[in-house]
């Protein structure tokens, strides 16, 4: 069983929801990536999504694009992202790390080389935004062959056929994009999410995480009530942007604890264990 | 229309030209692209659609565009004869409008009241704003803030036509960033918005659809050249940024015996300086803007900043079908520097009384290099893809002149 599957199984047994924060590797400076990953774990992260900076992040909003540009300007690269994961893994054997990014840095390294390097560094899964299922059969196969989970997106616009397409190639969990639009944008329609998640979960046979538009304890709690995992990205990047560098890790941990507490009230308030 | 005897059948059903092309976008866009593929397929098979497109090209754009024998220039160069396909004479002054009309008609059939576009030099933005005005559609054009500065007149033209021009401040503030921003708009406003991509790039079906609409250029040449000179040309030469004018004139000529296709990329300050936009000559395959193609990128797969004197060629990628034509040796791709393009620009102004776009001047410059090496009975057909009025500022500045 993969580290990701282990986490979801444990949480399910405990009647708890997964909290999946996102940070861009190398932002606000490469030396802070490891301390920020530690802070995320201290704050209650179950899985970390680590953003691989890309020069042209088409599916991201201005916040994450700024973070990517900032990281790249300081020399961040795929190799250095993998170095950060390796350092994290040497002190934390439990928390899965999912790389989130775009296809080109992977193709530049070569899919086979990348998958092997990611596995050796201690990466658990990959979410490649511009690899839809139909373009990633080879990539997903290579990832699974190395014991890594290829994670795919579904969106409010996705048909039931898409659920099946994604289930055929993906593993680990499904990342449901709760909004039409880019990261950090728009307004979250929680009723719509609540209606879609059970359909998706039934169709894909994997846990479903929800991201895009979750900004605080309240929205996290409401999404957590219907999803298996809550993903928070842009809001954490903003927290880091607004913090003095020496306080960033501390403030991210504090923000995370607020979300964690909210998520952990879900099971007890409803008295359910899924 | 494909020549009957050629086996060239690209893209395949999933939008691939060999290893290139495809649909590399986030999941949110996948259903919109599927909807577009269906709508476009329906349009292609609908005689009314085809008739309306042809009517608009004839009466609104002014097609067919003529072919002109640049006799004086050819004589001075002393070799092959240079013929110009006059896309600069189209309404709005470039080939871009052919595609915009096609896509706007598809948008109308899909019931989308809002169109968006990205633009580099501003030609595609102007063409999109023009057809949006013509068909009563809301129009938003994304343009890198660097390009907004370089192309003040075109920005004003778009505004006159009723479009909203959004300057893009991210990244290198040029065409690729405008494309990123337009994609973001599309993903956010998918229900009512049609994205009119200006070149033969992006996710399937765009490279195919834009090529089809632009193929009117080459189809006309196939008829016009025999009428003028009794045969097809020996060389067809066109500039390549994203590559839509080149694809438009090349595609009907693929498989025509004895015709060599030459795409001319912007070599900027020279390929060896690293300051250029020659993706096919100096890049390597990767994934950007929804398709796999040749890209200018660093070791880590980050897209690098490009340079060309012409904003319309200043793009780090290239249409995937050009990538395929290169690998399949069906076309050759060469580079022309800023200085060489400027020389050709001035020569055409002074010798033929035609002010060409700086983009097209790259194709002209290559023709001027090639012609003297060939006998006088050889024929070069150059796609004069746009007129140069928009480039007055750039050219004057290079000559140290201020308006």
* Cα-atom radius of gyration of chain B: 19 Å
Low-confidence stretches of chain A: 269-274
Structural class of chain B: alpha/beta
CATH architecture title of chain A:
Alpha-Beta Barrel
Largest sheet of chain A: 9 strands, parallel
How many separate helices of chain B? 16
Radius of gyration of chain A: 17 Å
Subunit structure (chain B): Tetramer of two alpha and two beta chains.
Catalytic activity (chain B): (1S,2R)-1-C-(indol-3-yl)glycerol 3-phosphate + L-serine = D-glyceraldehyde 3-phosphate + L-tryptophan + H2O
EC number (chain B): 4.2.1.20
GO cellular component, one term (chain B): cytoplasm
What does this structure look like?
Chain B: Its cofactor is pyridoxal 5'-phosphate. Chain B: The beta subunit is responsible for the synthesis of L-tryptophan from indole and L-serine. The complex is a heterodimer of chains A (274) and B (403). Chain A is an alpha/beta fold and 274 residues long. Chain A has one domain: Alpha-Beta Barrel (TIM Barrel), CATH 3.20.20.70. Chain A is built from 12 helices and 9 strands. A 9-stranded parallel beta sheet of chain A has the order 5-4-3-2-1-9-8-7-6. In chain A, α2 crosses α4. Chain A is globular and about 45 Å long. Chain A starts with a helix and ends with a helix. Chain B has 403 residues and is of the alpha/beta class. Chain B is built from 16 helices and 14 strands. In chain B, α2 crosses α4, α4 packs parallel to α5 and α5 runs parallel beside α7. The N and C termini of chain B lie far apart (46 Å). The model of chain B has no long low-confidence stretch (mean pLDDT 95). Chains A and B meet through α3, α5 and β6 of A and β2, α1, α8, β11 and β12 of B.
